Amino acid sequence: MDNGTKMGMNVKTWFMALGIGILLAVFIGLGINTFYEKPEVNNCNHNPIEVDESQCDYLDQPVPVKEQEIKTYCWTQREFTEEGETTKIVTEDPKYTECLEKNQEERENYSRNLFLILLVLGIIFIIIGVFISDVVAVSGGLMFGGIINIIHGIVRYWFQMSNYLRLGVIGVGLIVLIGIAFWKLRD
Known about the structure:
Layout: H1 3-35, E1 49-50, E2 58-59, E3 73-81, E4 84-91, H2 94-131, H3 136-157, H4 163-184
Parallel strand pairs: 2-3
Antiparallel strand pairs: 1-4, 3-4
């Protein structure tokens, strides 16, 4: 074969691998969405409750950041009716806060589980791709699809990870991919 034919085969192989990888990632994403549905977000009604001023730690002023978790913030709410203007002191309904916290916890659990599922599937497809060396396009596509799924999982869980976990996950992934490249993909 001349160089032009080899190059054409190389380009075809790369595009085939790219297509297989992208479709694999989309297939896994759709499969997860089909069998592991996102948690439903509860509609938390925001109806402040009226309180006595003595129950408030802060009234109509910003709460210092370090005290937001433990203090009761209240504000003056004005209502305009035909009879005139009335004001009352209100604070968040504890049920509203509980609802928001429950929604947040469910989303965080879902993101963590999705991260773990995508990480495991990504690793499996990378390993399969490494050991299928007969067809370069399939091997490359499986590895590429595995990498995309791992990245997808990391991105989904990124904001719940600590900096140490982020560093560890990215570092281990980088070391593993470099190791695989040296071990199996040398010319």
